[in-house]
Each structure stands twice: as structure tokens, then as C-alpha cells.
Amino acid sequence: MLPLFYTPLESTVKQKFRTPFIDDSEKKLIVHCCYHKVGTAWFIRILRSIARYYGLNFQNSIQSDLRRDTDIFMEYMSRVDVAKLPDYIGSHMIRDPRDIIISGYFYHLWTKEEWAHIPRKNLKNLTYQQYLHSFNREEGLLAEMRGTSQETIEEMSRWNYNNPHFIEFKYEDLITNESAVFAKIFRHYGFNEEAIQNCLGIADKFSFKNQSRRKKGIVNQKSHLRSGRTGEWREIFGDRHKQEFKQIFGDVLIKLGYETNNDW
After folding, report:
1. Predicted confidence (pLDDT) per residue in 198-236, tens digit
2. Where is the Sulfotransferase domain (predicted)?
3. In whole angstroms, what is the distance from residue 128 CA to residue 125 CA?
């Protein structure tokens, strides 16, 4: 079992003889795809730590910048052309689009990310953050729904969910049972049983509880890990938000498996 804390300065010699794979001769590029406000920071920490422990190369970037020596590749908006990838195995995570809007709205009110502070002509020279702050919460959620979250949700809708190289899973399932879902992911990557247990230890180190020091549901508005809850839209969306969502996104919730009809 991997110790909870380990030094990243372990000798490269030791790492060289440590492998997570069942068969190194069948090793493939590991690709993880997700979206803004769908566990990106969470997976960066986990995958980077796994790579460090096993002496692998982790890269978080767009596909055009993918290096030949990369072992674990993360594309945070899932914009990958699989036909141009080397032999790969992957994971792809989605989240309830309604919660993406809520998470995105509250995050974009305070984020220091550079893009949110660039004046935009289409927003009357306001930055995206200033634009959201110009509304009350009801209107701000609608603005977010038509803003960056719309781009994210449309990207999720366009994804090919029938690619057998990718294991598909939902943020909600992962939050509910982290160890079971992570074990499936690591097994899909071709990790051996010892490595799966080691990687579960790494994943637990970066769980919501251990990173935030809060129970799920306790809100910290200015944290990347805001609440750790799922289904917040039920408390925050009003009738106007529901109506606008259905008008913009149509049957996306049915396609993604979050609803069976549009009567929600």
C-alpha cells in the first residue's frame, strides 16, 4: 500500500523498476478527458501524483501540444481527435449540466483565472467576471447559462459516447463512491492490482474531505471545491432557469442520462 505521504524526490532508479501496468509491453497512452467545472483540478492532482510515483510523464494541455514522451495526457475540454492519438486507453467524465452552471457561476464570481479578467467587446468592454457581478443571482445564473457553461455543455453533447477505448463515468457516481469508481478507472487503464491499491491511496489523499477539511454540503464560496454536493440545481434553479435551460439545450439531459423526459 502506498504511504499517504511520499517524497517526489525518490530516486529515478527506484521509479524505473516500479510499474503500474499488468504488462509493460502493452502499455498505452492514458488519456483523461473532462470539462471546466467537472473535476479538472481534482484529476490534475491525482494523475500528476500517480505519474510522479511511477516515474511517468504527465501532461495537461491541448492535443496539438502533446509530447511524444507523455504517458498520461489530460485534455480539460475533451477536445481530442482520437484518430491522431497514438495507441491509447482513456477515461471521460461528465457532470449534470445544471450543476455545471451553478458551479461555474459561483466560481467565476471570484476566480483569478486570466481569461475571466480580459475585457470583451461583446460584453460592452466588461470582463466576464464584471459581467456576472452586474446581475443579481437569478439573472447571473441565466448569464452563466448563456456564457461559458453553454460552451461546456455543448462540448459534452458532441462527445462520442460509443468509443470502447474510453470508460465513461459521471461526476455524481464518483462523488458517491470514490473508491469503487476509481478502481474501475485504474483497472481500465491496465493497472495491476498492487498499483490499483496504491493509486486508490493517492486518490483518497485528494478526496473532497481530505483536501477541503469540510464535509460535503458545507459551502465555501471562494474555494475551487465549493460544496462537494450534487443536485444543487434543485435548490437554486427557479422556473425561469428551468425554462431557459430547456429552450437552450433541448434534450441534452436525456442524451446524457440525467433525465428520462423534459418534465423535470
Report:
1. 999 999 999 877 765 545 555 545 544 545 689 999 999
2. 93-254
3. 9
- CA pair distance 156, 168, nearest whole angstrom: 12
Report whether 95 contacts 34 (CB < 8 A).
no
Query: The pTM is what?
Result: 0.88
Which candidate, 32, 71, 82, places its Cα nearest to that of 188?
Answer: 32
**Would you tell me how many other CB atoms lie within 10 Å of the CB of residue 69?**
7
> How many CA within 13 A on the CB side of residue 66?
22
pLDDT, tens digit, for every residue of 131-176? 999 999 999 999 999 999 999 999 999 999 999 999 999 999 999 9
Q: Which amino acid, 90? A: G
Rounded to whole angstroms, how far apart are CA atoms 6 and 53?
Answer: 8
Please report, as a single letter, which amino acid is at residue 69.
Answer: D
Domain edges within the chain: 12-96+160-212, 97-154+215-255
C-beta separation of 202 from 46 below 8 A: yes
CATH architecture assignment, domain 12-96+160-212: 3-Layer(aba) Sandwich (3.40)
